[in-house]
Amino acid sequence: MDSAAPVDPSSTVNSAELSTIPNGGTEPDTLRGRFSSLIANAMENNPYFAAGGGLMILGTGLAVARSGIIKASSLIYRQMIVDLEIQSKDKSYAWFLQWMSKHPHRISKHLSVRTNYVQHDNGSVTTKFALVPGPGNHWIRYKGAFIRITRERSAKMIDLTNGSPFEIVTLTTLYRDRFLFDEILNEAKNIALKSAEGKTVIYTSFGPEWRKFGQPKAKRLLPSVILDKGIKEDILSDVHDFMRNGKWYSDRGIPYRRGYLLYGPPGSGKTSFIQALAGELDYNICILNLSEGNLTDDRLNHLMNNMPERSILLLEDIDAAFNHRTQSGETGFKSSVTFSGLLNALDGVTSSEETITFMTTNHPEKLDPAIMRPGRIDYKVFVGNATPYQVEKMFIKFYPGEEALCKKFVQATANLNVQISTAQLQGLFVMNKDRPKDALEMIDTLRHSSHVI
Ligand SMILES: Nc1ncnc2c1ncn2[C@@H]1O[C@H](COP(=O)(O)OP(=O)(O)OP(=O)(O)O)[C@@H](O)[C@H]1O
Ligand SMILES: [Mg+2]
């Protein structure tokens, strides 16, 4: 205790004098002796003072203990509990949600719905609902371990890749079960890849980003697209050749890219062929339609330089760019891709992987010769209306074994003396499923639906 504090200020005892007094002096005559006995007296005889002192000690003790417990428990927490955080921008995020929605031991009634639509070639739309765990806490049991799953949504941040709120899923479990995280993520990935197996993912642009267009589509098989003799095989062998020669390009410092142009009338199977080719190569496909008004030079450039891996780029209707020499354009369109914008984007792709670009147009005469330079378009092929070869192949594809009728049908189409697209043929055959005779009888309708070019 500080000896100076309770001393009468009038007293003139100095510290030197005090230090000569033996410690805890008992003589009541000295200043310290008097003071000590006063305190002892108070402690013994005054219950309030005694209790206060006791409380003070107890309080201090508790506070120390409390902070100790907090420290210890956070230490135990850190030792025994492990967290895994998955952010919505991470690929495994969607995989994990999908995995969890299928997990059988889920103790949660809080779900949210995720809707996907797929627009088919014929314009019809299929809608699929998936029930995924909603925001909040969920508990699951996985291989005997309890795992807490917290899905949190940020109200302020938006994920630019898909326009949805930024989210985080946190998995918490005991330290000893931490290896389960790895197993869960692998399981989730395998389920997701299985569902994409045999399928082609189609990406379209959404703002500055690529976004999956609906669910992965069943692969279109190459034999289902019937082009004139040799066209498919030639393109396929060229693509294979290109893909085998990465080292050749890098050794010579040439950008590893190849551009293909398919030109010809509508409904001749250009888009269908490119989709089937992507399926054959096990690639995904990124589609940009240059005739869409909301695509600018900057966005085109950005998109082409930020493609998802293993994708073919498909630029549809590239003639649209040739209507607009400059961004402001004589035609008055304010935002659309310009001729120079397209060339720059084609030249500027700086991917370490190979870049395969397919371009389509119905109007090759509108294209500026500058686009035919190697590195922009290296391979160009005409995909035209149905030739007798294609008519025959398509007929047999729809009506296997009907060789005799097929001959008549091929002759009848030739006699019509009009251009018929393969899409028109398909229309006629779909209308007469399993009725080849009716298809032959209705052949005149092709004349009306055809357009002479
Ligand atoms: N050669 C073909 N073989 C098989 N199916 C075809 C063929 N041509 C067209 N089709 C069918 O016709 C429809 C339209 O074909 P697609 O969209 O591929 O034509 P396109 O050449 O891309 O036309 P556009 O120039 O108008 O874009 C599809 O449903 C496709 O299955
Ligand atoms: Mg097309």
Automatic annotation (TrEMBL):
Single Gene Ontology MF annotation: ATP binding
GO biological process: mitochondrial respiratory chain complex III assembly
Occurrences of domain AAA+ ATPase (ranges): 256-387
Subcellular location: Mitochondrion inner membrane
Primary location recorded for the protein, binned into one broad class: mitochondrion
Cited InterPro entries: AAA+_ATPase, AAA_lid_BCS1, ATPase_AAA_core, ATPase_AAA_CS, BCS1_N, Mitochondrial_chaperone_BCS1, P-loop_NTPase
Sequence ranges of Polar residues compositional bias: 9-23
Name recorded for this polypeptide: AAA+ ATPase domain-containing protein
Taxonomic source organism: Torulaspora globosa
Higher taxonomy: Eukaryota, Fungi, Dikarya, Ascomycota, Saccharomycotina
